[in-house]
Amino acid sequence: MKKLLIGLMAMLTLPMAIAADFKEGTHYDVIKQTATAKPEVIEFFSYYCPHCFKFEPVAESIKKLPTRRRSVQKEPRKLYWRPNG
Question: Considering Cα of 16, then 18, then 24, then 27, what sign does the dihedral take?
Answer without folding.
Answer: positive
